Amino acid sequence: NAGVTQTPKFRILKIGQSMTLQCTQDMNHNYMYWYRQDPGMGLKLIYYSVGAGITDKGEVPNGYNVSRSTTEDFPLRLELAAPSQTSVYFCACHGGTETQYFGPGTRLLVL
Amino acid sequence: DQQVKQNSPSLSVQEGRISILNCDYTNSMFDYFLWYKKYPAEGPTFLISISSIKDKNEDGRFTVFLNKSAKHLSLHIVPSQPGDSAVYFCAASAKSNAGKSTFGDGTTLTVKP
After folding, report:
1. Above 90 in pLDDT, residue B23?
2. Which of A40, A82, A88, A106 is at 20 to 30 A from B39, Cα to Cα?
3. Phi then psi for A59, rounded to 5 degrees?
4. Which residues in chain A are closer than 8 Å to B95, comparing Cβ atoms?
5. Does B107 touch chain A (CB under 8 A)?
């Protein structure tokens, strides 16, 4: 039981490039979330999903897109990378008990 | 307006002593509160939680206290151990809000041997 996995662990992007951050969970949880954490700050919600086919914006959605075609996968897409998107990205899920289970994170550097 | 605040960015305590981490919130709709622990280069992990119908929840060395009238909660760690050194995030959620949690900025706890 791997829980929540994220790939890649680390990536350097040039300004204007695009990439997809992958997130997969094997806990069969309906709720999934993407957060970013900037240095010294808390977790800011980017997008979330309450089930396959349903997504919604969080607190800081600009510059990102998501899809949820299956219960397991919740990829996060950056279309035109900007230096302001340099951050650590965490994916999480929960099954209705309020407790969220987090992946190990993806560190992204945009230069 | 930050709805969940952890006013102390850092806290340093001696091994064996008590660590007290504080958290304040502004949204009266929050009805569930959680503490997460985060080590460097890892994702946050759930530590302990409390429902708004309770004022205390204990799990081993960890106790969370909730004061609803003051909109304040605290995490007590007794006795503190060097392995407790980590960033602690306070989070709050409302059942009506799709399970979304609002996080504080975290408090870095250092436990000195």
Report:
1. yes
2. A82
3. -80, -35
4. 98
5. no
* B9, B43, B98: residue with CB nearest A102: B43
Chain B's closest residue to A54, CA to CA, is B98
Counting the structural domains of chain B, the total is 1
Condensed to tens digits (0 to 9), the pLDDT of residues A76-102 reads 999 899 999 999 999 999 887 778 999
pLDDT in tens, A29-73: 999 999 999 988 899 999 999 999 999 999 999 999 999 999 999
User: The CATH number of the domain where A21 resides is what?
Assistant: 2.60.40.10
CA distance B46 to chain A (A): 7
Alpha-carbon torsion angle A31, A70, A48, A86, nearest 10: 130
Distance CA B81, CA B29 (A): 35
Q: What does the DSSP assignment read for A48-64? A: EEEETTEEEE-S--TTE
Are B98 and A50 inside 8 Å of each other by CB?
A: yes
Q: What is the DSSP string of chain A?
A: ---EEEE-SEEEE-TT--EEEEEEESS--SEEEEEEE-TT--EEEEEEEEETTEEEE-S--TTEEE--SSSSB--EEESS--GGG-EEEEEEEESSSS--EE---EEEEE-
Nearest to B42 among A40, A100, A104 (CB): A104
| Token representation of residue B81 | 């151990």
Number of structural domains (chain A) is: 1
Structural domain for A23, as ranges: 4-102
